[in-house]
């Protein structure tokens, strides 16, 4: 419910106000977003069309790429367009939609990363029970729970945002709508909202990161009992996951565990998990994964053969 809300739109300051730097921002992030779309869509298509990638690990990787694509799309297109415009206004309703979609797909990515860690734990530490524990039905239920959990988290963010009264300034010192910069514009005491934000977003990021790192410590420790070849393959997969986890959770924890204070570098740090991570993930999962690369080659070969037959 809106309380004394006289603001119908917000002004996004973006990363910079200097005309030359804005053009650089446009070019740089346009290329990054294009690379994100191409990389993640390629993984999505490859997993859906390849019979060699039907294991639970790739089932979860499909949803990671999907969440990456949607997560980046909730931020990047508007940011790219705003870099070319002088008046970067966003309506109140559009701002709320961005808050919801950003947190929904961001939280979904966190839960999918946890599911991928669970999959690796079962595969490496409980190999005899892997087929029964990680059946397609079980994986589908786990992903459904992840979607519901992400939706609940996003609804909490929207509820907290709509509980704030906006009656004065409407300039957001950021390149997208989020609860933190909106808190600075509220004409009310935001101490309780700050605590709720830390206990929600901050706790999800921190607890998930600790759980993931702890699970990978257990996994890596258990690898000592495997053969050299099996250890090498499992180690390669786990290292890929660990890199993704650190790149995504590091900046998130820095931002969402201290919402009462903001620093000038916050916007640049946010770039790492809103734009950088969705771009890097496909590179990590393709360059370090021979099965995905082989499936992509077969997909490309089939396309070339079909084109020649025409």
CATH topology: Rhopdopsin 7-helix transmembrane proteins
Approximately how much beta-strand content do the residues carry? under 5%
Largest sheet, in brief, is: 3 strands, mixed
Helix content: over 70%
Query: What is the number of helical segments per DSSP (H or I, 4+ residues)?
Result: 11
What letter string, H or E per element, gives the SSE order? Answer: EHHHEHHHEHHHHH
Q: Into how many domains do the coordinates divide?
A: 1
Number of strands: 3
End-to-end separation in angstroms reads 59 Å
- Morphology call: globular
- Compute the average pLDDT: 86
Taking all Cα atoms into account, the compactness measure Rg is: 21 Å
CATH class value: Mainly Alpha
Q: In CATH, what is the homologous superfamily?
A: Rhodopsin 7-helix transmembrane proteins
Report what the structure shows.
There is one protein chain. This protein is mainly α and 310 residues long. It has one domain: Rhopdopsin 7-helix transmembrane proteins. The chain is 74% helix and 3% strand. It contains 11 helices and 3 strands, in the order E-H-H-H-E-H-H-H-E-H-H-H-H-H. It has a 3-stranded mixed β-sheet with strand order 2-1-3. The chain starts with 8 loop residues before the first strand and ends with a helix.
């Amino acid at each position: 419910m809106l309380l004394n809300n006289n603001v119908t739109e917000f002004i996004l300051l973006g990363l910079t106000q200097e005309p030359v730097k804005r053009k650089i921002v446009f070019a740089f992030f346009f290329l990054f977003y294009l690379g994100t779309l191409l990389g993640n869509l390629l993984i999505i298509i490859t997993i859906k069309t390849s019979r060699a990638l039907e294991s639970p690990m790739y089932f979860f990787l499909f949803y990671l790429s999907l969440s990456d694509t949607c997560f980046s799309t909730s931020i990047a297109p508007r940011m790219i367009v705003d870099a070319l415009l002088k008046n970067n206004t966003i309506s109140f309703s559009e701002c709320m939609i961005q808050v919801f979609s950003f947190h929904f797909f961001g939280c979904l990515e966190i839960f999918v990363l946890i599911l991928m860690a669970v999959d690796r734990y079962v595969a490496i530490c409980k190999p005899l029970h892997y087929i029964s524990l990680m059946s397609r039905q079980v994986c589908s239920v786990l992903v459904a729970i992840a979607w519901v959990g992400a939706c609940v988290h996003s609804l909490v963010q929207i509820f907290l945002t709509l509980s704030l009264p906006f009656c004065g300034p409407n300039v957001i010192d950021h390149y997208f709508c989020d609860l933190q910069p909106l808190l600075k514009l509220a004409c009310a005491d935001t101490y309780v909202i700050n605590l709720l934000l830390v206990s929600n977003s901050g706790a999800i990021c921190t607890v998930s990161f600790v759980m993931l790192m702890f699970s990978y410590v257990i996994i890596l420790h258990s690898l000592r009992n495997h053969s050299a070849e099996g250890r090498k393959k499992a180690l390669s997969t786990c290292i890929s996951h660990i890199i993704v986890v650190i790149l995504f959770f590091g900046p998130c924890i820095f931002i969402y565990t201290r919402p009462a204070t903001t620093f000038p570098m916050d916007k640049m740090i946010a770039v790492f998990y809103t734009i950088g991570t969705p771009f890097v993930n496909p590179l990590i999962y393709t360059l370090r994964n021979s099965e995905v690369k082989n499936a992509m080659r077969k997909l490309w070969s089939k396309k070339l053969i079909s084109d020649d037959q025409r």
